[in-house]
Amino acid sequence: MALLLLLGQLLALMGYGGAFYLEVRELEEKCFIQEIPDGTVVIGNYKTELYDPAMEKYQPSPQWINLFVFVKDPENKNLLARQYGPQGSFTFTSQSPGEHQICLHLESIRFALFYDGKLAIHLDMQLGEHTNDYAEFAAKDKLTQMHLRVQQLVEQVELIQKEQEYQRWREERFRQTSESTNQRVLWWSILQTFILVATGVWQMQHLKSFFKAKKLV
């Protein structure tokens, strides 16, 4: 039992996620990059707020405010393009490892926003096993605390394996990029050397011709 608790504490330190706070105006798009291993479930819980100049603070957005979410994978393919309400969550699953672009913008269903159109987005990103509701699992499957903890540890280990595979993939990509760069540098050095040698030979031939012409004179 103590070993399980210790392992759980160590694995918990390696969790994913992040909270974001964005201030935007209507139709202004905000994008950020999230590195995600392949086959990882991502859930974004969000709420939007509209600035009230009379109270000089943000208030919960009315229902006529919509959030548009666009997600692209490292190959620039669309994983998600959907419209949501002023508060809720969105979900997608990564298909390939690497940097995913997540873009958000707010839009009203009316012709123009009131309150000067200033908005705020609170976003909480959860990746991997953090997307699971273990309390619901326990109630549904009637799991004991020990069984539930073991299931959590198994899923966390799977998440760590995905992260290790992703890191190996990044290292391999970096190695290929380095080798390609080194090869280009090598060929450029050879080309520079060839140009210098050719220029030297041409200059020598030119000088020989010049001195021969001087002797003849």
UniProtKB/TrEMBL annotation:
Broad class of where this protein is predominantly found: endoplasmic reticulum
Gene assigned in the entry: TMED9
Naturally occurring in which organism (per UniProt): Leptonychotes weddellii (Weddell seal)
Signal peptide (UniProt feature, chain positions): 1-19
Compartments it resides in: Endoplasmic reticulum membrane; Membrane
SMART domains to which the protein is assigned, alphabetical: EMP24_GP25L
Membrane topology type: Single-pass type I membrane protein
Domain GOLD stretches: 29-150
GO cellular component: endoplasmic reticulum membrane
Name of this chain's protein: Transmembrane emp24 domain-containing protein 9 isoform X1
Family: Belongs to the EMP24/GP25L family.
Presence of keyword Signal: yes
Protein origin, superkingdom: Eukaryota
UniProtKB keywords: Endoplasmic reticulum, Membrane, Signal, Transmembrane, Transmembrane helix
Parts of the chain that traverse the membrane: 185-204
